[in-house]
């Protein structure tokens, strides 16, 4: 990806259009949508005389195909499976398997009485049967790339991830334009080592895949680089790329850039709901209430029963501290799609707010089950176990979160705090240092460090840390007044003990500004002035002075 | 004119009348199932011909067909025909059998010499008596029928070894006597080895007219023989191409699929057969078993209702009802209807086995064993009852006894992977892991022979047990491999996931262990083993691993750091944790292999449904 991406856009467009046809004949709606969006971005490219699309079904099976496909489109999956299963052409076969899979999924959702219910034995049995049939085909090597994709999806569902990865890689190698397969694969490539093991085709679609998986792995800069390259290569009109770039900014906590990109996107494509929940998260973080309300209303008008809409409304209620209602909306989102990751995580947060740790744990667990790379869920789990006073669990979850976001100080601070609770001070120190070195976002690491040193009676270190802390927070409007006042007090005392009276005076003065330490500050100032007097009085006898100071 | 009519009306006793036309009339009435008319005219024929034996035979035949058994037997015996005509003797005996007068029937069949010995001359003594043949019955057929009847009588008298001997003789004297063949095969009287021997001993070449015919008979019989032992589903015996779609052969194919645990294929085949012939008697038990296995409750409900409405007199109808209740977990009604099935046909093995299962799933080991014992008496040639008795013994912690039953089972079916597997489990419970491993691997080889492409899901316990055994033997990586394979067969299985976690814990890979315990708990939330293990592993992991990802690079720390290396004190705690883990090992060891039972039970539940 280092070399410049150069694409023959005409060829790209021709292949895109062929792929759109292929996917839509097979009822792969999401891939069709994605490909069509991309194709639309190349609207300015003129392609003359598209090659005639031939159906992937032999002539004598075309009747079965039309019948099955019409049932499929009307979501009569069992019926579709019945008719498509009677014939043997790959396209019909795929339709048969896919309809069966979708039917199972829909029944699972329909039969869902409780969100937290375990796996249903009946559907999992059917899924296994489907998996068995697909595996037989795969072993016999009589499988087209689309069925292979479905096989991968089923394997993933059954938690056979290694096999799923290799099958999906095989599928994309055979049919590189099927975005759905890439997408599934990107969710399975949880780290770079796994990506390296796969032999992926060197196709321009791979760039989209890489961008996506980098983004999922929180390697946002790399993802951005790829996306910019793609934009420069001709896809600058792609709404997908715009959204992805916005998400990258969101991940990098560059909130205003992200919001700007989203607004840009909404101007181009005002009725687009995809990824809109990310925007609502951003607005939530920024506490932009009116904006969020507006967005919620807007989304509600476009489609009430979209997961994204439900998440936006959930966020809206959460911002208004109406957690009960927020939970209801997240639950609605999950009823629509139990695999919708961010709803699980957000619901976990809501339960945390409502102090319902049990439900919070369940929600976070589900989130992780859907996507192991959701660091927020891991972090949330850590927090719940902290409340439950189970430090080892807590440590484990924080560590998972930290692995996913190695440069996020919040996890490191959380880790350090937990180590502190376990009296593992050395580890705690390490964590706070690390948090400090990766850019202390909340500014708490240095304070924690200082306090820890204080507790370890390492006065020098503590003082250095405190000094750094107050230097950083001096100008700020001092959100955390008591911490700051305590820091000033500590420093005043420290310098007093060291007989650095000017510094001590300085800090003591500062501590006067706070209610909490006013009295103590005054007392300190008194001592300082006494000492000053002493210094002037007994200038000659340094020894005496020293011993006095140490009292 | 009146004189004429007088002439006509006056019957001249001396003038011969055409009796033959009346005889023909009787025959045609019989063929048209107008038995009463046939009886009436046959009676007249007897009077007309003045008790011609052949006519008496036909009269008796009509009585038999009208279910007047005692009358028929009495007729023949009063005329003394059973002493002179073999066919009459046969009919009389048949009547007595139908009338449930077994000793009388036996007396007739064994003649005066009362020699019950099984030697050839003893059996044939009846046949060697003076015989005046009745037209239309070839001698060899009559002989074979007599022998078959004798077998039936013996069987009714619960003398199964003599019965099977008679059946064999019957089959030998007429290779086309399928009744005898079926009696032998369906009631599981012979072991596979004996069956093979019987087939080779049949005088096919002398009784079949051409080579082709000989081959036809042989191939048909072969394809119907013991489907259980070492017959891969795809290599079925070659039969005549015209017979390819024959329902009996299709049923045999379905049965093979059933034993290979490929229920979907089996069900597809049986459904096809049932569609063509909705009440195919040999197919129904397999079809029902398949429905139970695939948990098709609704379809079974409908089928059972249909059967009971149409044929309440058949054991299989009530068997279907019993199976439905068994499937729904309602053991009481299940037992009631299965009991009804066995009272209709005492030899209906599948019903006895299911009866046993209905107790077994409720942990009523003694009663289950009683039912299985009954089944084992009925089906001498079948190892399944023995296997189940062994399982029940194992569950009541009577390993010694269990072992004995498994040995018996394996003497009948030495290549059955289920039996080998159970032997392995016994060895495992005796802490003889090397032997257990040998058995399990052996079973695995056998399974692979049966399932060529994809191994059936039913074998998940075998892989897990292999995993447990390898773990006990310290082959951790091998153990992981087996557990992984088990996971492929039965994904998201919590006990497999917990086992993998456990192996990882022993291997000191706490990160993976924690992962797997988490997964296991995700599937089964209140699993105490996983919960405790998870806590242990987590603590071990925390003290094992660096405080944060990438912490090894101490250069990351700012210069103020004067950090000492991790104190030896801490690393000691981690090893202590490990030893604590190994302490829990034996407890764990015994639990997982147990889990095979539930699965095994279901697996074999209806393994031999076709024994009706």
TrEMBL record, chain A:
Domain Cdc23: 12-246
InterPro entries the UniProt entry points to: APC8 (IPR007192), TPR-like_helical_dom_sf (IPR011990), TPR_rpt (IPR019734)
Keywords assigned: Cell cycle, Cell division, Mitosis, Repeat, TPR repeat, Ubl conjugation pathway
PROSITE patterns documented for this protein: TPR
Source organism superkingdom: Eukaryota
Single GO BP term: anaphase-promoting complex-dependent catabolic process
GO annotations of cellular component type: anaphase-promoting complex
Protein's pathway: Protein modification; protein ubiquitination
Family, similarity comment: Belongs to the APC8/CDC23 family.
Protein name: Cyclosome subunit 8
TrEMBL record, chain B:
Keyword Cell division: yes
Cross-referenced Gene3D superfamilies: Tetratricopeptide repeat domain (1.25.40.10)
Domain of life: Eukaryota
UniProt biased composition (Polar residues): 567-582
Keywords assigned by UniProt, alphabetized: Cell cycle, Cell division, Mitosis, Repeat, TPR repeat, Ubl conjugation pathway
Stretches forming TPR repeats: 460-493, 494-527
The keyword Cell cycle is annotated on this UniProt entry: yes
Residue span of region Disordered: 564-612
Record-linked Pfam families: ANAPC3, TPR_10, TPR_8
GO cellular component term of the entry, any: anaphase-promoting complex
GO process annotations (BP): anaphase-promoting complex-dependent catabolic process; cell division; positive regulation of mitotic metaphase/anaphase transition; protein ubiquitination
PANTHER family in alphabetical order: CELL DIVISION CYCLE 16,23,27, CELL DIVISION CYCLE PROTEIN 16 HOMOLOG
Protein name in UniProt: Cdc16
Organism for this UniProt entry: Apolygus lucorum (Small green plant bug)
UniProt lineage: Eukaryota, Metazoa, Ecdysozoa, Arthropoda, Hexapoda
């Amino acid at each position: 990806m280092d070399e410049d991406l150069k694409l023959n856009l005409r060829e790209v467009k021709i292949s895109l259009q062929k792929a759109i046809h292929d996917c839509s004949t097979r009822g792969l709606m999401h891939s069709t949508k994605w490909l069509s969006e991309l194709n639309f971005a190349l609207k300015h490219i003129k392609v003359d005389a598209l090659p005639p699309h031939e159906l992937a079904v032999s002539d004598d099976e075309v009747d079965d195909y039309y019948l099955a496909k019409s049932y499929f489109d009307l979501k009569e999956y069992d019926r579709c499976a019945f008719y498509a299963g009677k014939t043997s052409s790959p396209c019909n076969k795929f339709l048969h398997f896919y309809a069966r899979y979708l039917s199972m999924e829909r029944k699972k959702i329909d039969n869902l009485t409780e969100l937290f219910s375990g796996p249903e034995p009946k559907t999992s049995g059917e899924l296994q049967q489907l998996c068995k049939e697909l595996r037989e085909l795969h072993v016999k090597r009589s499988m087209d790339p689309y069925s292979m994709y479905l096989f991968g999806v089923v394997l993933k569902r059954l938690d056979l991830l290694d096999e799923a990865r290799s099958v999906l890689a095989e599928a994309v190698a055979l049919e590189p334009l099927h975005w759905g397969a890439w997408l599934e694969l990107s969710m399975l490539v949880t780290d770079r080592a796994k990506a390296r093991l796969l032999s992926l085709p060197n196709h321009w679609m791979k760039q989209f895949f890489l961008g996506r998986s980098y983004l999922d792995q929180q390697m946002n800069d790399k993802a951005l680089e790829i996306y910019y390259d793609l934009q420069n290569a001709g896809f600058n009109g792609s709404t997908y790329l715009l959204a992805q770039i916005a998400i990258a900014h969101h991940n990098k906590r560059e909130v205003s850039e992200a919001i700007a990109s989203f607004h840009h996107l909404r101007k181009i494509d005002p009725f687009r709901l995809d990824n809109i929940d990310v925007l609502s998260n951003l607005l939530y973080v920024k506490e932009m209430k009116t904006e969020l309300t507006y967005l919620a209303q807007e989304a509600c008008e476009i489609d009430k029963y979209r997961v994204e809409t439900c998440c936006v409304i959930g966020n809206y209620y959460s911002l208004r501290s109406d957690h009960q209602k927020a939970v209801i909306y997240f639950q609605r989102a999950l009823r629509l799609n139990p695999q919708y990751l961010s709803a699980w995580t957000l619901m976990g947060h809501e339960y945390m707010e409502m102090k319902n740790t049990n439900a919070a744990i369940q929600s976070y667990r589900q989130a992780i089950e859907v996507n192991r790379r959701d660091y927020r869920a891991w972090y949330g789990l850590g927090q719940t176990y902290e409340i439950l006073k189970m430090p080892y669990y807590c440590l484990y979850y924080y560590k998972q979160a930290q692995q996913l976001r190695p440069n996020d100080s919040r996890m490191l601070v959380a880790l350090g705090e937990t180590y502190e609770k376990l009296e593992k001070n050395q580890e705690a120190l390490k964590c706070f240092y690390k948090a400090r070195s990766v850019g202390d976002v909340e500014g708490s690491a240095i304070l924690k460090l200082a306090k820890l040193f204080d507790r370890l009676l390492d006065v020098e270190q503590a003082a250095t840390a405190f000094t750094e802390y107050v230097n950083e927070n001096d100008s700020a409007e001092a959100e955390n007044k008591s911490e700051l006042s305590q820091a000033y007090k500590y420093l005043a005392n420290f310098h007093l003990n060291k007989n650095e009276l000017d510094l001590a005076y300085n800090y003591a003065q500062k501590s006067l500004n706070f209610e909490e330490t006013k009295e103590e500050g005054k007392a300190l100032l008194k001592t300082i002035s006494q000492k000053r007097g002493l210094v002037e009085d007994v200038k000659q006898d340094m020894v005496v002075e020293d011993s006095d100071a140490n009292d | 004119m009146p004189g004429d009519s007088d002439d006509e009306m006056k019957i001249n006793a001396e003038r011969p009348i055409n009796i033959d036309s009346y005889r023909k009339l009787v025959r045609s009435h019989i063929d048209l199932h107008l038995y009463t008319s046939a009886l009436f005219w046959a009676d007249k024929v007897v009077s007309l011909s003045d008790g011609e034996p052949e006519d008496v035979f036909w009269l008796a035949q009509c009585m038999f067909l009208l279910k007047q058994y005692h009358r028929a037997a009495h007729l023949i015996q009063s005329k003394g025909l059973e002493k002179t005509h073999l066919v009459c003797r046969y009919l009389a005996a048949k009547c007595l059998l139908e009338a449930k007068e077994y000793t009388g029937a036996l007396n007739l069949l064994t003649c005066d010499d009362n020699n019950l010995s099984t030697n050839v001359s003893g059996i044939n003594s009846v046949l060697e008596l003076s015989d005046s043949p009745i037209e239309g019955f070839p001698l060899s057929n009559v002989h074979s029928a007599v022998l078959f009847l004798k077998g039936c009588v013996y069987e009714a008298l619960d003398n199964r070894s003599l019965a099977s001997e008679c059946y064999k003789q019957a089959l030998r004297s007429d290779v086309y006597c399928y009744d005898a063949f079926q009696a032998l095969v369906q009631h599981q009287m012979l072991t596979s080895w004996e069956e093979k021997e019987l087939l080779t001993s049949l005088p096919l070449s002398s009784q079949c007219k051409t080579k082709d015919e000989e081959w036809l008979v042989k191939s048909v019989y072969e394809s119907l023989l013991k489907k259980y032992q070492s017959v891969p589903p795809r290599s079925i015996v070659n039969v005549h191409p015209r017979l390819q779609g024959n329902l009996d052969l299709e049923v045999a194919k379905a049965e093979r699929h059933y034993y290979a645990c490929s229920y979907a294929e089996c069900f597809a085949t049986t459904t096809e057969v049932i569609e063509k012939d909705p009440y195919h008697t040999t197919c129904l038990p397999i079809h029902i078993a398949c429905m139970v296995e695939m948990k098709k409750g609704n379809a079974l409900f409908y089928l059972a209702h249909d059967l009971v409405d149409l044929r309440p007199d058949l054991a299989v109808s009530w068997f279907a009802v019993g199976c439905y209740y068994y499937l729904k977990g309602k053991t009481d009604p299940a037992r009631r209807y299965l009991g009804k099935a066995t009272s209709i046909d005492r030899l209906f093995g599948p019903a006895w086995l299911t009866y046993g299962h209905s107790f077994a799933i409720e942990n009523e080991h003694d009663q289950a064993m009683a039912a299985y014992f009954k089944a084992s008496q009925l089906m001498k040639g079948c190892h399944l009852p023995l296997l189940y008795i062994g399982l029940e013994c194992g569950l009541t912690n009577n390993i010694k006894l269990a072992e004995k039953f498994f040995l018996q089972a394996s003497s009948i079916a030495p290549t059955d992977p289920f039996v080998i597997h159970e032997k392995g489990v016994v060895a495992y419970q005796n802490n003889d892991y090397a032997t257990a491993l040998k058995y399990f691997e052996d079973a695995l080889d056998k399974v692979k022979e049966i399932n060529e492409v994809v191994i059936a899901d039913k074998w998940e316990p075998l892989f897990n047990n292999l995993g447990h055994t390898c773990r006990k033997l310290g082959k951790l990586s091998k153990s992981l491999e087996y557990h992984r394979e088990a996971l492929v067969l039965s994904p998201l299985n919590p006990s497999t996931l917990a086992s993998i976690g456990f192996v990882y814990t022993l291997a000191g890979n706490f990160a993976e262990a924690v992962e797997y315990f988490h997964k296991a708990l995700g599937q089964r939330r209140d699993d105490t083993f996983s919960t405790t293990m998870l806590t242990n592993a987590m603590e071990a992991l925390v003290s094992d691993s660096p405080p944060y990802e990438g912490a090894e690079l101490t250069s990351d720390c700012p210069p103020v750091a004067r950090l000492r290396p991790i104190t030896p004190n801490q690393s000691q705690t981690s090893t202590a944790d490990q030893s604590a883990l190994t302490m829990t090992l034996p407890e764990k060891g015994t639990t997982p292999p147990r889990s095979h039972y539930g699965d095994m039970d279901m697996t074999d539940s209806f393994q031999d449904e076709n024994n009706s």
